[in-house]
Design goal:
Blueprint lengths: L8 E6 L2 E8 L5 E5 L17 E2 L1 H9 L6 H10 L8 H8 L7 E4 L4 H5 L3 E6 L1 H12 L23 E6 L2 E7 L5 E5 L7 H14 L7 E6 L2 E7 L3 E4 L2 E4 L1 E4 H4 L16 H11 L3 H17 L11 E5 L2 E4 L18 E6 L2 E3 L5 H7 L7 H23 L2 H4 L4 H18 L1
Antiparallel strand pairs: 1-2, 1-5, 2-3, 3-4, 6-8, 7-8, 7-9, 9-11, 10-11, 12-13, 14-15, 15-16, 17-18
Helix pairs in contact: 6-11, 8-9, 9-11, 10-11, 11-13
Amino acid sequence: MTKPEDDYLLHVVMNGRVIGDVQRTGKKAVRLLYSTTVPTPLSVSMADRRKRYRSNALEPWLDGLLPDRPETLRQWRRRFKIADDNSAFALLRHVGEDVAGAAQFVRPDRLDNVLTGHGVLAPLAASDVAEMLRRAKADLPVNLDDSTIGKFSLAGAQAKIALHRADDCWSDPSGAVPSTHIIKPAIPGRDDQDLVEAVTMRTATALGLPTARVAVEEFADERAVVVTRYDRVRRNERYLRVHQEDMCQALAEWPGRRYETQGGPNAARVADLIRRVSSDPDVDNQRFAQALVFNWLTCGTDAHARNYSLLLSGDTARLAPLYDLNSHLAYADGTGTELSMSVEGAFRATAINLRTWARAGSALHVDADWLRAEIERQAAGLPAAIAEAAASGDVARYDSPTVARLVDTTAQWVKKRTG
């Protein structure tokens, strides 16, 4: 039986343990109180387990768990009958049990189920997944049943769904059972964007950058990129959640400020954070610099602060694998292209050169000579790596002119920038 005060409380659970409570203390006020023993904090911005964290720290972090699609949020509020409440807390009462990272936000009436490992896997046919993708693209609730609790929330502006995969069978998970994959249809208005993302991600992997695994798959009449979640690991025949947060969350910034041009974090600020909190800052600052170089060489125009993350375990923090990599060179030749994070104040890709990068080394906490060598290494390997990624069977089968243009334009662009 629920009590009135339960409407103002969410338990924070990580892999079967309550690590704290989020309490609503007013219409727009929330606070976090950790339990006595907390292996991993919610955020490096809320790392002191002895403190209570109030709205100024907690609200932006919670908001970062929700989609960046206003119509999706409106539809959720209608469905959950909270249309007059635009707080993240109100929505997480319904969609907080499967979000990015290890934390589950659990209503008191569902706590026993989650703590005892209870969860449901509802099997899905390919046509079911296709219908969920169509609903996601239309900003409609994707659930195929009438459930209003325990579903997923995924950050970002692109339509996507989260499902569980086991033995090549797809299921809709709930309760303690986590999703294992994120499935994303192509962005409307960009021809074969799903193929471009798969190629860009695999190119980064081929160049030695830690990157989430991807595949292109069809579900009835819907095609999508399938991303294996790096914040889920399999242990003893079951999946565990791994905690993570994006750089806006780690810096206590509202997700709406993800772009540097909107006042959000720039590369130097992210590099400073990595230097301060990483358990291996030299390696992670180099990995972050590698990602910045890659996004310049591929004209990855949406590599903002929310598209970089930290993995947290206890007091250990490491830069997470890359995700959401998309080259704009499939649609333009790079002229006039602007990046989400500037290099030494320059956003326009054509305004950035080797001298610009040399000046940026100290702000990124990497050696300038190492950075120059890394640019030369990536530039030398990029044309062959992207051609090989485009030749992957699940991409090549579509004989996409957009992908062919991506391969050709990348070779020309790299030669102009570093030749």
